[in-house]
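Per your request, structure below.
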């Protein structure tokens, strides 16, 4: 793993780090001497060697072979290693917070050492031991660089603020890393959102999503066009290659088929962007929800008068239209035991508390009682008409009033019946909760909704099919659940309860959803 691994080894030279001799040849010989494998050591997890040979990459059980060569690891003083690369906001705050939480839970000591401006290492120690149990290295960079490091075998885990792109997925598969879109290779670590921000004293309070796209495409250039002062709009975004900046292009600009304005000012860190916006009275930026600083977020609105602000709840339910989940991507390879334990911990209830305390949006399901959803019903009444009569809204209230909405919602990729990335994670999460018996003796209702494009009867049928498909996906994933203890049903209300205006692709996508209601 080139110079990074060498730097880590220098920091751990007293501990006989495996990686000091990486990129050197080794020979693995079976205990009876009949089989020899020669190649370059790519990794050792304490149990298995990963070797690049003339036959391709091989994984060999260490208990059945002898190792010879300068790269052979010490089996007595083995230090498990794991390398993260990618998103700066995840590397600087979120993942280190989880490492500290994991160490505390397992009674391990931590030591953090900075190697240079973009690299640091966490060492984990058992009590009363001077040798580390594990060394976890970080490269603080961008999502693009994280995937590049993974493909170059210089990282084990990618921290990403966007989904893996088809070209990256293809190269990973060709490199023997498996299908990186599978649930065990791609996981949502925490939730985030793209939030338009302005200076605290800026008089503009809200903006529609189409207007936001026009602003960042350079088509709206003056605040007067948004109800503000007669002054030019200065634009701010994260650095090129960062996951959030690419998510802006993919989620905000791509649906409009417009390129980004060439006048945008770029910032290496999200905190730098927030500070710049706070001191620029005529600036507008798009920041991470967890990194808005003292800048003020704009509310997203539409021509129909519905408004949506970025909050923990609207991000968790995906009601906010510009969600941006935070991903971990892992190749199809065996990791050290302590690394596997850490990754399992990141999905635990204890880890969700750490994520929330670190300022990010966790994935712990919450209940929203119907009396806390007045805005939704007010919007539904305001939007009622010929195709959605008041009687249909009364039916919604009658059926849902005894239940509470779970924040675990399901939405779909644009122009597709496939659940989006956050929803695929939600399927696994809800399935695990069913297997754990969390909803035993409860009623779970999968409720489908649609946008208002098309006739109401057809939309109701589409909503019913979506709700049934999500239910089936959850039940298929919940292999060990005792479903006899849970009452599961499906309901659909079509376009009767819109979350956003149907005047844009973003609004329609928010309205096409399946909710889970619990009693």
């Amino acid at each position: 793993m080139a110079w990074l691994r060498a730097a880590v080894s220098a920091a751990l030279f007293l501990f006989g780090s495996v990686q000091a001799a990486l990129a050197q040849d080794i020979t693995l010989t079976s205990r009876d001497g009949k089989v020899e494998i020669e190649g370059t050591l790519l990794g050792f997890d304490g149990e298995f060697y990963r070797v690049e040979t003339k036959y391709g990459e091989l994984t060999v059980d260490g208990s059945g072979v002898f190792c010879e060569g300068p790269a052979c690891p010490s089996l007595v003083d083995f230090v498990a290693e794991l390398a993260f690369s990618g998103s700066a906001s995840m590397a600087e705050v979120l993942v280190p917070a989880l490492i500290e939480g994991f160490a505390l839970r397992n009674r391990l000591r931590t030591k953090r050492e900075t190697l240079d401006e973009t690299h640091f290492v966490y060492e984990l120690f058992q009590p009363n031991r001077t040798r580390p149990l594990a060394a976890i290295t970080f490269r603080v960079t961008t999502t693009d660089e994280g995937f590049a490091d993974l493909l170059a075998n210089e990282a084990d885990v990618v921290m990403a603020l966007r989904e893996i792109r088809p070209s990256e997925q293809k190269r990973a598969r060709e490199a023997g890393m498996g299908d990186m879109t599978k649930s065990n290779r791609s996981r949502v670590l925490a939730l985030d959102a793209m939030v338009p921000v302005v200076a605290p004293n800026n008089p503009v309070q809200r903006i529609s999503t189409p207007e936001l796209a026009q602003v960042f495409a350079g088509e709206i250039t003056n605040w007067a066009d948004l109800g503000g002062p007669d002054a030019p709009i200065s634009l701010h975004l994260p650095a090129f290659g960062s996951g959030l900046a690419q998510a802006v292009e993919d989620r905000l600009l791509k649906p409009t088929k417009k390129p980004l304005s060439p006048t945008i000012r770029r910032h290496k860190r999200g905190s730098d962007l927030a500070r710049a916006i706070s001191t620029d009275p005529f600036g507008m930026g798009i920041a991470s929800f967890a990194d808005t600083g003292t800048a003020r977020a704009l509310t997203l609105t539409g021509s129909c008068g519905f408004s949506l602000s970025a909050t923990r709840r609207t991000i968790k339910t995906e009601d906010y239209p510009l969600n941006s989940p935070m991903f971990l991507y892992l190749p199809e390879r065996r990791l050290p035991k302590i690394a596997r334990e850490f990754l399992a911990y990141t999905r635990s209830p204890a880890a969700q508390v750490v994520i929330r305390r670190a300022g990010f949006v966790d994935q712990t399901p919450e209940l929203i009682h119907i009396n806390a959803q007045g805005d939704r019903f007010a919007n539904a009444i305001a939007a009622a008409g010929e195709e959605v009569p008041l009687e249909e809204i009364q039916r919604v209230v009658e059926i849902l009033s005894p239940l509470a909405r779970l924040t675990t919602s399901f939405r779909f990729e644009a122009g597709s019946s496939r659940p989006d990335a956050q929803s695929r994670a939600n399927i696994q999460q809800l399935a695990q909760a069913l297997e754990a018996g969390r909803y035993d003796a409860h009623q779970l209702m999968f409720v489908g909704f649609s946008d208002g494009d098309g006739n109401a009867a057809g939309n109701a049928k589409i909503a019913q099919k979506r709700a049934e498909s999500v239910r089936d996906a959850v039940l298929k994933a919940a292999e060990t659940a005792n479903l006899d203890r849970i009452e599961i049903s499906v309901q659909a209300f079509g376009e009767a309860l819109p979350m956003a205006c149907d005047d844009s692709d973003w609004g329609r996508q928010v309205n096409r959803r399946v909710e889970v209601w619990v009693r």
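The CA atoms of residues 19 and 493 lie 58 Å apart.

Regards,
D.
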